[in-house]
Amino acid sequence: MKKFSITGFLDQFVGVQAGKKIAKDVKTGELHEKREALHEEIEEKKAGFDIKKAAKDFWYGKPHGERRLGDLYIGNTGLYKHREWRGVKDTMYYFNCIWLYNYLNMGLDIFKGDEPLAFFKGVWRYRWMGQTYLSVMHWFDRGLEGLRGEALKASAWHYRAMVSETIRQFMRMFAADTKLHLDEKNEYWHKTIAHDETVSGNIFYPWRDVLDDVPLQMIPYFVSCHVNNKTVLNYIDAMQSIGLPADPCPMCQAESGIFVLDDYPDYSPVMVTSNEACDGSVATSIITDWFLDRPLFAMPQPMRFDDPLVQKHCQEEIEQCWKFIEKEYGIPFDFEQYKKYAESFNKLTEFEHEKWDVAANTPYYPINSVAQALYRIYYSQDGDREIWHKTDAHVKKIMDKCVEKKIETFPMTRHRAIAWSCAPLYYSNWCTWAYNCWGINTIINMDSLMFDQMLRTDTYEHALEDLATFNELAPMRSMAVGGHEHIFQLWKYMEQFNCDFVIMYDQLQCKGMQGIKGMFEDEFRKRNIHAIWVPHALPDKRTVSRKEIRSIINDYMITVMREEPLDPSLLDFDDDESW
Amino acid sequence: MKKFVINLLKILGITYVILFIVFFFDLDGKLLYYLWEPNAVMHYDRMKRKDNTLTPYGKKDNVMPDSEVKAKKIG
Fold first, then answer.
1. Residue B4 has pLDDT above 80, yes or no
2. Which residue of B has its CA nearest to A86?
3. Residues A376-419: pLDDT tens digits?
4. Is B35 part of the contact surface with chain A (CB cutoff 8 Å)?
5. pLDDT value, residue A282
6. What are the backbone angles phi and psi of residue A456, rounded to the nearest 5°?
């Protein structure tokens, strides 16, 4: 007798069911209809197939309106069935000079770090490291979707620089981290300064040759939100689990949650904090002080920074901070080192002005909005590093070529937009989508326009004065919660950058910006400006999803602007579970 | 020597093609998404950690000795 087998039974069952269905379809005539439909479809394809067009699409890539980028996604994962075919030249550039080059250099950067083996310990120990940074190439994919030619090259160089600097920072943290070295406080630990991510790296130039400064939240929180937005949710929930209500700024919640979950590297004997330039988060310093338990210097950025007395106060605070470092590390302040790095940093600002000039006055600017925004805020906050100069040299070559040869880098631009206020960190690449789907080209954004000043180095007094101003113009402070006259600089920049459209970020948990919403709406009406409010909750994608953001923009473009999408496949798709 | 060079070129060529397949079909992304990430999350969720909320507000000492962390049970 034959033995009973479950798989055999299931096979038979499935086979019988399929047979029954076919028999039913034959009976009702459905099978015949299906066969006819399939034949028609094949005939249509045959008739519509143009070998010359197919060869052209293969060689040059499909034109913008025919790409159907939305069809490449797998379900709501954000993964691709296959990566985009951009034509032979651009696909091979992406493969060789972006994908392979970056994977290779990520490995090399780790081995250039102070202690390469610490990388593996870090991956094992920290959630923000192991869950986030290995998926970094998908961050490139999302930001660079649809780009071609010089725009693809220049934007990718910006991404490369951010990855390289991120690796440098976490390798330094891991090399010094007592948690990865059996509680041993090694030489790196004694020579590293920890500070809040909104305390400018410029402050620490006087010790750059002998000490290294690494912002504590930049990698565990800020950059990780962009690369894999799932990690940060753990930290937000952790903070709320100890009693914080859900409505304060989720950035401060996440930064504090890293301490609650004991997921911060212990890499420095001191901490220099700010108020994250947002007065809703003054308490972040208090919580950091509680959990970190070490000498801490709090240096909050003032709210009304136009007042000369406030400027004086800010200068005194920077001097006190310098004295604090001298005392804690026993290394004297060195103005010559400050001068060296500040002058080098000024060169980055000079090139930034050159970039703005091209972006404002020509259609030849080769950097897409997400690369421009993230790179600018990253390097200006981080301070002078070699990688920024190398990147600027690459980008300058590409930009000069575009201007000389009059290469239109974003040829399907229908609207030149300016993005204002703080962007959703979990969807900073929305502007790549907006260009691909609607031709909305975000030329510049608020975060790029901060820190717009040179640092004088001729005298100590001038240096201190400029540094104080630089510190006062910290992210979120200068144009978001720094007084309505600064927030309304929007009109000036709209004109300067020749923009006809505003993307107005609406951070639902930012009490500062919420207060001024009505004034903005009045001004938009009075000035007859098209503006789309984009609600979000900074790092928390659960409050307003990416799909909802797209749907708000779609509604405006269809009902108000009465426009047709450039790529209809991008109108509506799920990506809730994507990185 | 010539044979060695030819073999080396063959290996490099095959590796290059395999890498292109990984790139084009987003196999790196799929591996990380479906295999690495769920396992990594499980690892971090089960990790023993210090309970930093026990830190007294005025304290200047380690809140929980490492031996106690090691003995701590998850869940």
1. yes
2. B24
3. 999 999 999 999 999 999 999 999 999 999 999 999 999 999 99
4. no
5. 56
6. -70, 145
Residues 6+ apart with CB under 8 A from A78: A138, A142, A575, A577, A578, A579
Residues of the domain holding B14: 2-49+62-71
Residue A120's alpha-carbon distances to A113, A116, A208, in angstroms, are: 12, 8, 27
For residues B40-69, give the mean pLDDT.
Answer: 79
The residue ranking higher by pLDDT, A40 or A173, is A173
What ipTM was reported for this prediction?
0.88
**Contact (CB<8Å) A131/B41:** yes
Tell me whether residue A266 is in a domain: yes
CB-closest option in B33, B41, B49 to A261: B49
CB contact under 8 A, A263 and B59: no
In a domain, B56, yes or no: no
In the predicted model, is pLDDT for residue A323 greater than 90? yes
The verdict on residue B35 lying in a domain is yes
The whole-number pLDDT of residue A18 equals 73
Q: What is the pLDDT of residue A432?
A: 97
Report if residue B20 sits inside a domain.
yes
Residue A420 lies in a domain: yes
Range of the domain at A530: 87-570
Convert the pLDDT of each residue in A236-270 to its tens digit. 999 999 888 888 888 888 988 999 999 999 999 99
Q: Is residue A339 part of a domain?
A: yes
Judged by phi (left if over 0) then psi (alpha if -120 to 50, else beta), residue A352 lies in alpha
Question: Count of CB contacts below 8 A, A vs B?
Answer: 65
Total of domains in chain A: 1
Identify the closest residue of chain B to A243 by CA–CA distance: B53
What is the predicted pLDDT for the residue at B75?
A: 47
Residue B37 resides in a domain = yes
Percent of chain A residues topping a pLDDT of 90? 74
CB contact under 8 A, B37 and A135: yes
Nearest CA among A312, A219, A308, A328 for reference residue A268 = A328
Question: Which residues 224-263 of chain A have a CB within 8 Å of chain B?
Answer: 242, 259-263
Distance of CA A313 to the CA centre of its chain: 33
pLDDT tier for residue B11 given thresholds of 50, 70 and 90: very high
Number of domains in chain B: 1
Tell me whether residues A293 and B37 touch, CB distance under 8 A. Answer: no
DSSP A226-261: HH-TTHHHHHHHHHHHTT--S-S-HHHHHHHHHHHT
**Of B12, B44, B50, which to mutate for an interface test with A (greatest number of A Cβ within 10 Å)?**
B44
SS3 content of chain B, % helix, strand, coil (to 5): 70, 0, 30
pLDDT classification of A120: cutoffs 50, 70, 90 = very high
Is A560 inside a domain boundary?
yes
